[in-house]
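Q: Predict the assembly, please.
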Amino acid sequence: MNAILEFLHSDLFFMIWTTLAKSAGLLGVVLGMVSYTVYAERRVSSLMQDRLGPNRTGFPLSLLGFGIKDWSPILGGLGQPIADAVKLLLKEDFTPAYVKKFYYWIAPALGIAAAIISLAVIPFGSSIAGVPMVIANIGIGPLFIFAISSLGVYGIVLAGWSANSKYPFLGAIRSTSQLISYELALGLSVVPLFLIIGKLNLVEIVHYQVQNGWMLLPGITAGKLPTLSQIVCWIPILISFLVFTIAMFAETNRLPFDLPEAETELVGGYHTEYSSMKFALFFLGEYTAMITGSSLIITLFLGAWHFPGIPDGSMAGWPGVLWGLVNIGVFFTKVFAFLIFFIFIRWTLPRFRYDQLMKLGWIWLFEIALVNIFLTALIVAFVH
Amino acid sequence: MSPILFWIFTALMLGFGAATLINRNPVASALSLVVSLLGLSALFFSLDAYFIGVIQILVYAGAVMVLFLFIIMLLDLKAEQRRQLSLPVLLGGAAVTALFVTQIVLVVRSFHAGNQSFPPLASKFDDASNIGNMLFSHYNLPFQVIGVLILVASIGVVVLSKRELN
Amino acid sequence: MAYQVPRPKLNFAEKIYLPSVIAGLKITLGHLWRMLRGKTHVCMQYPEEKWDSHLPPHYRGAPTLVSDEFGRTRCVACQLCEFICPPRAIRIKPGEIPTKDKFAKVEKFPEQFQIDMIRCIYCGLCEEVCPEQAIFLKKEYAITGTSRAAMMHQKEKLIEMGGIQPGVVNKWNEKK
Amino acid sequence: MVTLNDYLLVSGLLFALGFAGVLLRRNILIIFMALELMLNAANLSLVAFARFNGTNGLPNYNGQMLVFFIITVAAAEVAVGLAIIVALYRARQTTNVEDLNSLKF
Amino acid sequence: MPLPWIILFTPLLSAVLIILLTQRWRNLSALISIAAVLVSLAASVVLFRTLPDSSTTFQLPWLDFRSLGFDFQIPIGITIDGLSKAMLLVVTGIGALIHIYSWGYMADDEGKSRYFAGLSLFMFSMLGIVFANNFLMMFIFWELVGVSSYILIGHWFHKPAPPAAANKAFICNRIGDFGFMLGILLVWTAAKSVDFATIQTAWPTLVAHPAFAPFATAAALCIFCGTVGKSAQFPLHVWLPDAMEGPTPVSALIHAATMVAAGVYMLARVYFVVGASPDALQVIAWIGTITAVLAALMATQQNDIKRVLAYSTLSQLGYMVMAIGVASPNGAMFHLFTHAFFKALLFLGAGAVIYACHHEQDIWRMGGLWKKQPITLLTFAAGTLALMGVYGFSGFYSKDSILIAASEHHPAIFYCGLLSAFLTAFYMTRLFVVVFFGKARTEHAAHAHEAPAVMWIPLVLLAIPAVAAGYHNVISNFLPTPVHEHSLVPCIASCVGLAGIVLGFVLYRGREKDPIYIPLLANKFYFDEIYALIVWNTQDLLARVSAFVDRWVLDTALVRGLASGTWGAGFILRFAQYGNLQGYALLFGAGVVALFYFILFFK
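A: Predicted assembly structure:
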């Protein structure tokens, strides 16, 4: 009995339960965010196309006694994600007869797992009551994210292959080669950042930005003007940011690069043969990958949870907790803003041709990223 | 790392390693190998080799095994037919493997220095930058040689996979 | 002969795509901004607003059976419409009119008249072909139902939907 | 407590597994995978020794460097090997090593 | 950046620019090249005016063997002293004039860019030799001169003769260069350095040791081999006349100021090595004398205007080498200096004549040009008189200083020198009379006209120093020449020269064809044929021997023996290759396991 009590008071137990709580909280927030990103996507796209989008499925306020019909334009449609989820869950889960069953079943899970696991190393807030708001603070965060997201390929390959049908297979092959091609540019493009900061730990990268201004906007610090070296370093960082963002679009199969899905050519790409919740898992995986990517961009380039004038949550007592929560809010606001940017781009640009895609990846982005590394190395050697 | 986790990951690694060999479907073999390698990288993490562990995932699981899967799908390999294993090969293989295992066990048991626990590590050390420093100072030549090797390998692959070799 | 599609030669600005990305964003965000300010004319909000009063005269809605001012169906169960219907949506079961009946001259009447609205393609051929001008495509467009059976319009429903169409009809013309 | 010998034993077993795979399987792709297992077994013991021989609170990075190089070389090796297998498959329509026996007297 | 680097690298820059960028714009290439050489010239003049006369050296570290454990390093260095400054002016000045002249002469040539790139490279190489302060650097530029001369001589490579001539020049040079390299190695072995200054201080103490004398002689003679090749001395002189196949400005450049002068310059530069061995000096003096006389004899029977000039160059070079041999390096340099001007003038004049006669080079197909080309006539006459050593012209002074030195040294050499002076006067008179006087012998000669300004202006510019360069108050600005208060030797020389002129006039005035024909001289003492015979026979013998070795030793014993041995071994061993991959793996694994067992438990 005593042993149990002792365990309950130990640091280990504290760590375990805080980690579990953080994981659960983050997962909840992110999955909620996913569903509302889908909603936002539909609303924004319709607004950009002079439509209204889903504005009907509101919360049934009248059941709660609110009879005010005029709220429906405001709250209308906010229930759409729930309705979608219910629909997807209740739909007939159809498994075609000719598929390779085991792989057909495991593929969607693999697809979403990779996206969710990468979230573990992203610092989504400063700290609350001394607990750092990151699930796993490991020293090689970005590498970990690249490693895990490279595993996402398996979901796609297996989905395409196990469906035993030509369109999914073509989609899977395209998707895989696209992911592998752009992973190079993705990985190389952030190297300049690490050259400048000298750390691979995401938390320390955020702290660096809190002290020296955001990487992309070096002017944003409390009462400090950017130094000369920061201004010089800004050029490679800008290139890095552009390449990273473009590669991230490609990695998440978002629209200028959505070749794997390419409805007009491949029906639905690798998930053509999927329906119901298995399809929804791919869908969720894709949007989770978007959130992970945006979080990474925010963390690396745009100061993560930091915003000028808002202190971090390290102070004691309730103001600390409050500010910690505010920091988390700032982080997710930034992520959401970036997601909106993702959506803007998606509904603006047409799709690339496949050869253009490959050319862009291998001839432009890869080389630009490489040259950028040398440029940064020179700058770091001579200026920094 | 606690012994429980060590044995869990070991079991995972060895079990899926065995599954790689036992499965008759090449895709299943490849996927088992991926899991086995993930278990191995977990063991790397347990040995505080975070960078190597992540590289292991990135290179092996992320690239090499995808290549394997690709090739399997490209060649459209079906599950092998159950074949009669020739007895001498089976016996010979099993015998040599068994000899090898006993040998390993004997050697490891007689290696008393290895029964000590691992030395303690500093609470915080920067794995990646240590390796980077080492790579660009002491191991610079091998590093560049490896670069050339990879270049040669990629050219070789392109040449080999052309349909007509003139 | 393979035809080589001539590809336009791109200059540097076009090659790096970014200017066109920005140009595209300008267009789409412009639409978004106008939409948010309510400057865009949005399409009709259907259940609240309806278009009924603006329906054109030639609008083809659901097929119906019309009655005259005395509540009599015009159909003589000649089955021409059943024959002409492209999706075979119409089923008619003709019934004999007893000889002593006042309208025995017509001989037949539809004992059962059913249009499968799941199949109907609103082509209007039935209206065209009807010798007695018994079928009309009215302006009904909201044909809904919660079951397959509800979408099978039976004679009663059709007559109810058809309403009254005044005027002399062949069938009742004593002189013929 | 987990000791170096545990790791070495596990590494040896993994190596034996790979070895058995090379000896017993007929599919050249699986044999190739078994080879990868053997390489990784070597990696494991290298990393274990690197950790064991650590000084000043740091692991001995020489061992880890070797692992790094092994992984790199293995990647190149896999690429070339698979290309050879594909070429072989095109020529012979098989991946069974028992059918690939033309290199004999 | 110090001035010498500008002088040295501007031509290189121009060569690189032309080759890499402006190959397609021929006139632009020519302009770049001319501009480069003018910049070099200007810088040389500034350098001459500003830098003190004392020896100054610029150095850059280059090859450093100290990190490898040898106490030895080779810098790239530059020597500035009276010798190099004078040479510098000659090279850049005449080079500049020849560049400008080439602009006119090569106006319509297809390979103009290539030609000017070659010229620039040539200038660079030659300047490098002039500036070199150590043997290694000198050798590198020495070879560069060889390469660029190869390029320039073989400029019209589509014709049969120029490439052959280029090859010949290059091969002859290689033979000499090999000796030069041996010499450098010998000097290095002895002095443990390749730096001129270091060797200069070290050499006397070394030579003081009596046992060292043969070694010093060997080193000096090996180095002299370089001169024999580059300055076309007696056994290796055959390339120089053939090199006339190149464009005429190239001939002028090679003959007058640069390539052949390099050998003499080198000897003067390393005189501290050469002069330390009297035996070597003796050999050098005689080689020079033989060359002077032989070449002069050959020149009397040549009909090609450029070949006559070429043999006269040979003869004059023989003079210079002779001067070195009689321990008068200053005399040699003096003659080199004056000769550079009048020989360049003569070649360019010959070029003007050739140009006027539509690339006709046979003197018997010219004639009567004195009316058509007055400027050429006058300038050519100035050059001829200077070459003959007529009193008042530059050649007189320089030749006399050599003859005086020779008379003090050895009477036989002095008489040979006189003979060659006589012959010089004779053949130059012959050339001049046949070309310019008499009647026009062909259509082309009859319709000849004056060369364009871009060609005759350099002639006039060259004629001035050709006349005046020998005056004591002129030359003493450049070279420390001794004033000889000697009246007998100049008198004798003048008389001999006058005799030659008179004989030439008497024999050749108004002749339509050559009145005398001496086959031995006309065929250049059959040197080419003798060489060909030697090479032929040696080659034949070697070929027989190596054919025998190849057939019986290599083919039969080695190749077939090895092959059948391998085949037999393979036949036996191939039974081990039964084709089952896994069988191999099994055996391999079993072997490894067995080996481990053996090592672990039985050892």
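The radius of gyration of chain B is 21 Å. The domain at 1-78 of chain B is CATH 1.20.120.1200 (Four Helix Bundle (Hemerythrin (Met), subunit A)).
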